[in-house]
Amino acid sequence: MHKTLEQSTEPFPFPDILYPEDLPVSARRNEIAEAIQNHQVVIVSGETGSGKTTQLPKICLELGRGRKKMIGHTQPRRIAATSVAYRIAEELKTEIGEWVGYQIRFTDKTSPHSAIKLMTDGILLAETQRDPLLRAYDTIIIDEAHERSLNIDFLLGFLRQLIDKRSDLKIIITSATIDAKQFSEHFAVGGKPAPIIEVSGRLYPVEIRYRPILTDKANEHGDKKTETEERDLNDGILDAVHECQRMGSGDILVFLPGEREIREATDALRKQNLIGTDILPLYARLSHAEQSRIFRPQGNARRVVLATNVAETSLTVPGIRYVIDSGLARVKRYSWRNKVEQLRIEPISQASASQRAGRCGRVGPGVCIRLYDEADFSQRPPFTDPEILRSSLASVILRMKALRLNEVEDFPFVDAPSGRAIADGYQLLQEIGAIDDQRTLTAIGKEVSRLPVDPRIARMILAARDQQCLNEMLIIASALSVQDPRERPLESRDVAERAHQVFVEAQSEFLSYLKMWQWYGDQVKSRLSHRKLAATLKERFLSPMRFREWREVHKQLLTLVREQKWRLNETEATYEQVHLCLLTGLLGNVGHKTEDSHVYQGTRDIRFYLHPGSTLGKKAGRWVLAAELVETTRLYARCVARIEPGWIERVGEHLLKRTWSDARWEKKAGRVVANEKATLYGLTIYSGRRVHYGRINPVEAREIFIRDALVGLDIQSHLPFIKHNQQQIEAIERLEHRARRPDILVDDALIYAFYDRLLPADMYQTATLERWYKKLSPAKAKELELHRDQLMQHEAAGVTTDVFPRSIEWKGVKLKADYHFEPGSVRDGLTVTVPLFHLNQIDAERAEWLVPGMLKEKVQHLLRSLPQRLRRSCVPIPDYAEAFHARWFDRAHAPSKSLIDALIDDVWQQKRVRLQPSDFKLENVPPHLLMNFKVIDEHGRMLSGGRNLDKLKTEHGKAAQESFQEVAVKDKSVAKALDHDRITGWSFGKLPEILEIRRKGQAVVGYPALVDQGEYCELDVFDDQHVALKQHKLGLRRLFRLALRETVRYQEKNIPDLTRMAMLYMNLGTQDDLRHQIIDAAIDQTCLMEPWPTNEQEFEQRVVDARQRLGLVAQEVAKQAYVILQAWAELTRKLAGFKAHTQAYEDIQAQHTRLIHKWFIRDTDPQQLVHLPRYLKAAQVRLDKLRTDPSRDQRLLGEVLPWQTKFLRAKIALKGADDTQLERFAWMLEELRVSLFAQELRTPMPISVKRLERAWHAMQY
Q1: How many other CB atoms sit within 10 Å of the CB of residue 924?
Q2: What is the C-alpha separation between 102 and 95, in angstroms, rounded?
Q3: C-alpha distances out from residue 52 to 41, 99, 256, Å
Q4: 67: nearest Cα among 34, 126, 20, 116
Q5: Most buried one in 30, 348, 742, 1193, CB count within 10 A?
Q6: Could you give the count of Cα atoms lying within 13 Å of 678 in the half-sphere of its Cβ?
Q7: Does residue 1156 surpass a pLDDT of 60?
Q8: Who's near 347: CB < 8 A, 6+ residues apart?
Q9: Cα–Cα distance for residue pair 435/446, rounded to 1 Å
Q10: What is the share, in percent, of the chain residues with pLDDT greater than 90?
Q11: Residue among 152, 146, 172, 166 at smallest CA distance from 61
């Protein structure tokens, strides 16, 4: 309640005003009174203990102020406002509520007749909303203005504007330490600064001692130790406490930056077992009982009070004679970039240091020990940064908007905030929807401004009105507006944690407030007395005072809600409803768990941790919401809850920044889609969401629809024009693939232009196209059909099924032929689909001919690969290739020889130039001119593919043989032809070259062969002629051995030098092994010359001839083997001395191991066997040269090894199968070794690394 302007009667007698003579301000009261009388604003700068706080209201009262209106006197803290009020009332000898009253949050101890009103600056600021001119006051005293809190700065600016409107209003600004000149200029009236009156303090002298922590310790005699020790803050405090104890009695006040440091210092001091000393912590979160131990001391023990900067001003701790100043404080700063509050430990200002020192000069001479040096003190800033320069301005801006004051940019702050801070405040208000883009107050903003809480919390309450969860949100909002009622005393921290477990909610710490509220309500309903209720709360480690504040805030909010006639929900709100409301005010405080399980990625590129005291811990989930983000040693999230990312999207729709990528046509969906990514201040809320792109960017979506769906023929629709156009385009594309000309079909841009001209502007999906098409007339619909002449740039003459057949008949089986034109692709060229059972029957020579339409181009490339001297006879090459194509066209469908052989014969007949197969550089032939094979199983599934037929047969030959035999056994005629057992002579009649096997109306060719079974032979059929020939050779060899058994037995006993050879051969095998393979090699050379016998007569004739020649051939083979074994033995002995040359030694060892193996005499081609001594001799020559020039050997080996490695890998890939091309390459490698390491031995043909490279590429490995 306030006085009215007409009030004149005074129910209480005017008090006697006396001034204590020991207060310095009493001596200056006349000067102060005169300044107040003559000036509207007076600045009083008084030191601690000057008495200004209690005496200035009395001076004003004596001047006649406060009779019809009140003298308003503000304090920064509630405890200061009440204690000062009681002190003034005591001096005026009046009761509280008569001449002197006070008002703090939830408590009003004033009456209509009160002259002096003590209050917090927040109370006065709240009154400006109801009474913008503050008509209830004629004098306003702003005390402790040096603290420069947000409320004080706002009041100073407000009062600066008010003095122009109310000339009768007197304003007094006081502080113990103040930048008087700055305030004087701020309150200048008529260009004349406000007067400054400085009042000295009544302090006893205070001695300042500097004891920097990072210096050497001193011993008991004051001498420094010889050894320096690393010291921390606690070491400095311990030394300072001991120093104070030596100086005499008196309590000690220690200033520390925060609770953690207080706990650590408390532990350190208690470990010292200081006799007759109490260690007491002091900080804002202490319970009322613990604070009483400090302000109402009992007993004679010395007290060491460990305090934060709450004891720096306003609060006076009695009995302090010594102050220990750490020089540090935890300062709250708001980061405009990260939108978080940071509690950082920073060095205090000089003014704060002086305030701390002033705490010890009130009961006698004091000593202040500063734990830093004097140079550090002199370099510190004079004053602490005002809170307005380090706080969010959102609530200030909102309040100014609601009061219709000037814009914040024009408001007369003492220290104007930066433009960045102002922009941040506007951004926060836009985030909660309180202002629009023009920065004018919205309907939500007006409602938010009427709620006396933080704008974020007010926004949550408004959302709760819409979400029907006002009951729950009022409880949570009021809880977030006061201090946490849960107490955690140092000595009972674990017990308190267990007591609080009953309120823990598994997924949300916000809901813990609801449990606490419900529990407290149950206790109130049980009708406990106030004393018992307080005791019950303390048993649960809950603060009765904070619970009272919580209930008062809730009561105020509930009253406001009822005034607005908002309806409270009757049913319990869901988890989602509550947290959707919380999100409306805390969108900037969401986070997503990163790969590091302890770190969350927040908005604006910040990363934070859950507070160590969080009850959620590891159960917090991937997405969390925090009530606040505070930076101490780390950036911590306090009061967190699990949320769903979809909730963020719903609440923050207006703040999400969406981007789209990978716009593409989707055939199945029939529309253009894109990947959508949404971010909230840089934090990805979702990404990769598939969205309809046509609604976002219809122009680009239409382009993609036409280009990819219509031009690209990638659309699911039965519209006639689409089917017609697709058939036309595919027919022309097939022509292009066969002709290998990409210029027949017109460019896509022309087809795009065709559709672009005919389709409307809003066409970007299949459904829209079909609806639009149904409305077209037949004539208009016909215009959408493309004609052949519109699609072809020129006629593709000569591209017919005669030269490009759709299938190739191969040994009775029709194989599908596909043509593809895509240089560099594995599908480029002609691809023949081969059933697995037919794979082994595919002839590599037939594959060389491709199809007639591709023959001319391949012949041109083959002729161009000839050496120039030979190529000259065929120029012009295109004309010769054309003529060859004409001459061989009829035979190209079923050629009798390879293309190379046919070309050699043709050149001889036409030009009388003799070519050799080695003259052609097959590696120069492009890949598309080599037939590509696609192997499929019986179900049509692709098993493998490639252009290397030998490799395909190696991979699938065995499976192909099994598949073939499954087909063969079903043919009765084949089974009858093979019905012969234990064959020891030619008793099976004429052996046919092929067997015809019928399968589904097609004739499949099989190859019969004799199979060696040891003492006899069997007949079998094979699908691969080469495998059949290999088996047949072994079978024939066995039959000849059986027919020549007497001759063979004689020759085995009379092989010359067998024993000597066996000695050289002993590391490879036994003498019997050597004997058998010499006879086998002799039989091969005498009996198995081509053509092999096919009937009994031819077989018997070979037997007769072999009886005469077998002995001579066996002796020749033995002699040759002896030479090879001697050369090998000599190389082996010589090589043993070169182990130091590791690389060369291993290479030669591997080389002769490949050449000389157990069955080298029988298995090596006789034409190559004669070269083995030269290869072994070349290795010896290499060793001789290695001694004199190892670097040369290493260089030459570097040229061989890459190709050697390629060969070995290809050999392994064949898995034991034969490959004549690879075998020929192996002998080329041996010739290259001779050419490089022993050139003097010469080679039978030109050889080089370049030739080797071309040969390798020709094999298509």
Answers
A1: 14
A2: 12
A3: 16, 19, 28
A4: 116
A5: 348
A6: 15
A7: yes
A8: 327, 328, 372, 376, 380
A9: 9
A10: 26
A11: 172
